Hints:
The chain is an alpha+beta fold. It is built from 39 helices and 38 strands. The strands form twelve sheets. A six-stranded parallel beta sheet has the order 1-8-7-4-6-5, with helices on both faces. α1 (12-22) runs parallel beside α11 (317-339), α4 packs across α8 and α15 crosses α16.
Amino acid sequence: xxxxxxxxxPNKHLKRCFETMMNDHSQPTxxxxxxxxxxxxxxxxxxxLKSSKLQFEVELLEMQISLQRDYKxxxxxxxxxxxRLSDDHSKIVYCIDELGLLCAYEAVKIxxxxxxxxxxxxxxxxxxxxxxxxxLEESLSIIENALPxxxxxxxxxxxxxxxxxxxxGCDFEKxxxxxxxxxxxxxxxKLLRSFGGATQVLxxxxxxxxxxxxxxxxxLKGVGEPFHFKASLLTSxxxxxxxxxxxxxxxxxxxxxxxxxxxxxxxxxxxxxIDLPNYSTVICxxxxxxVHDNVQQWRRVCQSGSPCVMMIExxxxxxxxxxxxxxRSEHSMNNNARKRDHDPRVVKACNVEKTESYRVEATxxxxxxxxxxxxxxxxxxxxxxxxxxxxLLCLETSKILHQIGSLTYHVPPNNETPPKKKSSENTEExxxxxxxxxxxxxxxxxxxxxxxxxTWSDKLDDGIDFYSYRISFKCSDVDVAFSSFVLxxxxxxxxxxxxxxxxxxxxxxxxxCNVSSCGKLHLNAEQIAKGKCFHELFFNxxxxxxxxxxxxxxxxxxxxxxxxxxxxxxxxxxxxxxxESLDPFKISWKEIDSCASxxxxxxxxxxxxxxxxxxxxxxxxxxxxxxxHFANRSVHKDDVTKMVVLAIHTGKIYSVHxxxxxxxxxxxxxxxxxxxxxxxxxxxxxxxxxxVYPGQNMLRLKQSHRAHNLLxxxxxxxxxxGKKIKNDSCKVNTDxxxxxxxxxxxxxxxxxxxxxxxxxxxxxxxxxxxxxxxxLASQLREEITGRVTNIHISISLILEAITTLRCHESFSMERxxxxxxxxxxxxxxxxxxxxYPKKDEGQLSSQRSWQVCNSTLYNLGIGxxxxxxxxDIPFDPTRWTAPGQLPMRPCPCDHxxxxxxxxxxxxxxxxxxxAFFGKxxxxxxxxLGSKTISDCVEALVGAYFVGGGLTGALxxxxxxxxxxxxxxxxxxxxxxxxxxxxxxxxxxVLQGLESKLGYEFAVKGLLxxxxxxxxxxxxxxxxxxxxxxxxxxxxxxxLITRYLFKTHSDIDPGELTDLRSASVNNENFAYAAVRRxxxxxxxxxxxxxxxxISNYVKFVATSSTDTNSLQTxxxxxxxxxxxxxxxxxxxxxxxxxxxxxxxxxxxLLPPIVTPEKxxxxxxxxxxxxxxxxxxxxxGRYRSNGEAVKVELRLQLEDALLIAxxxxxxxxxxxxxxxxxxxxQLEKRGISRKNxxxxxxxIKVAANTxxxxxxxxxxxxxxxxxxxxxxxxxxxxxxxxxxxxxxxMKMQWPMPVFTSSEQKSKFPIEIGEGANRRTALIIFKxxxxxxxPNYAVIELMGEPRADxxxxxxxxxxxxxxxxxxxxxxxxx
Length: 1371
């Protein structure tokens, strides 16, 4: 610490202290800044203020006496008001002494604003509260009379010449002499002015009182230019009503660190959770009274390396000695640290002073003296301890509170990563922060399906016993036939998996699939070998390829079945074989044998080898014109149609459509004739094949095509919970025509298989995907249910619980997740209520919140390895492979994990928003949202509740690791305790309430407890309804959610959530309580509550029952609590009979909202409308004193809509502005009702004259800059994202893309450079962008191989076109 040259040290002792520290280079620079003691005492002024205060105190006392006979809380309320009056007086006097009259004037105005707010919340005590306001107004008048005329103008301090008090020409010495500003403030002004125009300076001014910070902040904010300071206020870590909220505190510190604010007035920077930014200048305007706080403050400055200016009153020996104590303490500590272990060669034991702590043996959690303060603040907010002695006191308090059950077993205030409930091999380390959130993505593996594993080997002398499952198909078109198949597995499937009915959706028809168990079936070694041949030939010939390598590459072209490529894996082995007949059950071995023969023929042919092919020895009887010569045999031309053949040169399987009568291999080629003159020439040049019979007729063949997702009706009315499904990657194009090829017969090998078998093969990928999913769900069900025989959950419910919306199935976990959330909340609430009869509602709620929070559920799911069961990837038929099939689209793992299971490690977590979902590698690794795991936990609980009632749900909850014991003995104990309550109200009061409810209580004490408000609990037996309200909240949540779940089985999960939110809330319950006149039975003793209830009852009497009407009036919370507590009382009285509680409350509740009558919050409704129409809403928020002003702008095609509103909070103002905007849309003919059910394109009505006038005004008053793109990425999706960003910034409607598809028989080269490729199908996209009041720009993009790339091509052209029009800049 070094002294500045200009600092004076009247006290030589203090100077020596500073000089002692100067040689300590580990300390930052210390500047001492002294100031004169004020020579003006303002005694007369302060006497007037004290007299005024005493007068209003007498008036408050008189009002207290007049009200205390009627209202119990009158003494408490008036005691608070007297304290407030005294505090306000103290603030004013303090500002007069420390800052001067001008600042005292500003302090009074600040107090007046706070007092005005307090009056609005006082109810019957408004007259009493107004006394505090009158005192402040009178004080303001007293101070104003003491100031010269003209000094006060508006809200800024001015001299008579209207000069700002911080202007360089201001005569400060006269103002100090008159007492208008204090010498201390004058020195601060001079110091700030010395910084001049240094805009990079960061300055923190530490003050003792919040009022000082507020006054100085208000003054400096009105200065601006002279000092280039942007000031802000930070009053942290205090329970004062003037303190900064935690959220605002964080924002302020972020602004300060980022230099958006460079002057900070603070009272709590020295506290344990706030750090000073490096190299910020610290000015100690006030020196804290406690030496310990000074040392903390000095250490904080030392750690930041910041220069410090300490303001000290000249001649104040006590204050200077206080500063010396600080310096000596810090210097002594540093010297002791240096002297310790001075000889580096000597190793000594490190004697560290033991930190006082308290450890919970059950969990291993501990609380120390340092962390005890924050813990006590969390659970006992009134405490504001900071000294060492109080730390130890808080530690002891924490220990006692935990031992009596008032603190949870997990004492550290950290709810983000609760302890693990289950041990697991891959959960050795605690998960990093963010567990259970949507932001975090995690890499997880996929659980193998045990049912599809096999133990086959190459040599099976005795054969294998299989479990057989018959698969039959029935088409809606009776003229279309499909062959039946049999599925052979070594494992036995559960009955509800083995006996299945489902539908597959083709382009214009539906195929009903039936799977049924047929018992055991034995196959010998020869049959197994032939079955493998069937799999290898058909599944590779249709869905993959039978040749690998190329004649023109380093890897020679080989027949797949002659290579060493391993096609069979023991973890995935089963047979799908064609049936000759269903009844009797018989496998078509003739067709299977034909596959084995075809394979042997191809192996022997020269074409499968790297030599010139020859077919001379194969052809016979070539003189007949009625005979068609195939590669392996000759057939009469009348028997050719619908024959299944294998193209020996490509390995593709076809079916014969017809014989081309006038086309032979000599005929002109139907492709590029500039390269190939004839078909014969084509095969010669392309494949080096010399045709033996070029003169025989060519065959027209129907080509095999890739598999499609047939599980969802993408082309019909396929829906997912009320919404049409759109998945372009899986959609079947109904406009596509059948693809045909023309080939000479001598290149085709006949396979003696029915065409029905080939057609059925196209159904198998979708069918097996569903069956495998059910097998996985069955495997999970077995783990959860175990050997329990009284619980049976449908396999379809389990499958739904592990399927996310991203799978694009006709079902997903979201509905069950919503139900499971309520079930879990109810079960945990009942357990906590019964387990801890002494804990209050706040403690129970805190513990419940921890037990059901997403991070806790995530840990439970990881402990149970649920992540491997979750289905989060849409079915991609092109990546489906059958046993014995070569994968066509391999995806090697690049995650650095060699095992199927991914370790739970932070290196496999990311918050990158670009992390790719919806695709897995060949090992089954895929990215999952962390919240998806906690959602699956809730969905499983919901599934077990639907299938097994509360018993099933509790079983699932226990399996997950949550202890929920709804023991009847505990229920009995709770009832016994309630029966001991003292009956303070008359018996007819309880009987009248029972009559209203339609239920007679067996234990009247429960009803008595349910109607007793906290303000009356001490008049009786010391009980209130708060614990029952905690229980009733959860039971009503469950009952209403269950009702909505069952009643609306076909609506969107999001809409189901909205229905629950509209039905389960305090406003709705309060409304029901008043409508049923239950409020009249509430036992309370509070004037404020009486006023609130009276006003709300009047509102209900004159209001309608629609949702928006209820939202316009805030109900007293006590009324909703009363309704919930009665539900909790009935639940206990009926011994947890949910059905009986619902029978009663279904009649008490107002009509439950239906989808047709559901009204969303206005701002959300506006956003949903804009999202559906491609519009952007832009909001502007401005703080105007105590109100927030919100302006919303919506640019339509031909009009700019503007809605403004002001309110006390941003949320309320935004909602009211959105309501105005929706009204404007209605006036234009755009209905805002049920937008989510309206899929029509609505034309916006025009009002061009008003729009043009408004836009002209905008052009004059606003400076909208042309957007600039620093770079234009061509990665997939990037051009569209850039275009959307420009449209959003400029508030243009979203661009409209229209795609077209073209097909060619032969590959077409498209694209340029690295993107150049060949394709048979090309896509073009037309883009249209309507720029309001300018033009509609339409362009056609370049052809691309897929639809999304075509969109990107059009987007790139549009961006450059916008640049050409001067609407965009691209750097």
